[in-house]
Write a structure and sequence with these properties.
The protein has helices at residues 2-14, 18-66, 72-77, 94-97, 117-139, 143-154, 160-174, 176-179, 184-191, 201-209, 212-249, 255-277; strands spanning 86-87, 90-91. It has 283 residues and is mainly α. Strand 1 (86-87) and strand 2 (90-91) form a beta hairpin.
Length: 283
């Protein structure tokens, strides 16, 4: 998903080829992951956090200012309807272009809701607890670090609702014909996809709202998010191979041998994921 989002953003901003973008980022992230290992991943990850927080908060402020703050968001969101809803003898169904009536409700209908409340209340807490808390229990050195890690991961998770989700809704308000398009030819014209252009909502805000300097900061934000994920996955894949497979096959392996074996495997694994599940030509 991040590969696709960043490729879309770069193509919208500079018209660059998406495969060239991915190749450059894979090369750069691979170089400092292989040469620096986990230390490089940790230090760059911490730096990326501050860049991402600063960029997303700035864009959030610009976006809310354009719709008159939060009070103007609910009223204007339900009026954000694309002008063109038909082509030839075909007319889109209302549910495909009208905003969901429960868009501002966290607890949604268990049958018709796009995020049913049983999954929200019963499924996501289990996944979140495992993903954010179990990782800390496994990796930290004592109980105090575990508690601190869980809190550090938990509180920033309150921000995406205001810094990512709501700006995405504001993007629909400001550019309904692009973000909420339902006619295939229109969607193809705006984003290169026939099924809809909702993935361009956030990049479109960056390009249309921010001045040049801040646009560059958001470019760094997207790049930081993309590379942070790549390096983390690469390092984890290397650790899985060396600690769970290679040491079983070769118990006498030295640390240098494990490093030489594991680092390239992480990059090969990342390249496989990007090639297999990355964006296709119709983007």
């Amino acid at each position: 998903l991040e590969v696709c989002s960043y490729a879309l953003f770069m193509r919208m901003l500079w018209g660059m080829d998406i495969y060239l973008i991915i190749l450059v980022l894979l090369t750069v992230s691979g170089l400092y992951t292989i040469t620096g290992g986990l230390v490089a991943v940790v230090y760059t990850g911490v730096l990326h956090v501050f860049i991402m927080l600063l960029g997303s908060v700035l864009l959030m402020c610009y976006a809310f200012n354009r719709v008159g703050g939060y009070k103007g968001l609910p009223r204007k969101y339900f009026q954000a309807i694309p002008h063109r809803i038909s082509e030839g003898n075909w007319t889109a169904k209302p549910q495909s272009y009208l905003p969901h009536r429960d868009a501002f409700h966290i607890v949604r209908d268990p049958v018709t809701g796009d995020l049913p409340w049983p999954g929200l209340l019963l499924g996501l807490p289990i996944l979140s607890t495992y993903y954010w808390c179990a990782n800390q229990v496994i990796s930290d050195i004592n109980l105090s670090h575990v508690k601190g890690g869980c809190l550090l991961c938990g509180y920033p998770k309150l921000l995406p609702m205001f810094s990512m989700v709501m700006p995405g809704m504001i993007s629909r308000i400001l550019y309904p014909d692009k973000v909420a398009c339902v006619v295939s030819s229109e969607c193809q014209k705006y984003c290169g996809m026939e099924t809809g252009c909702s993935p361009i909502a956030y990049p479109l805000l960056v390009i249309e709202l921010l001045p040049s300097g801040l646009r560059g900061l958001m470019l760094s934000t997207f790049c930081a998010s993309f590379m942070s994920s790549l390096t983390s996955i690469s390092n984890s894949a290397s650790a899985l191979l060396t600690l769970n497979i290679y040491t079983v096959v070769r118990p006498v392996a030295t640390e240098k041998e494990l490093m030489i074996t594991g680092s390239p495997f992480g990059e090969i694994y990342i390249n496989y994921l990007v090639i297999s599940f990355g964006p296709r030509e119709n983007l």
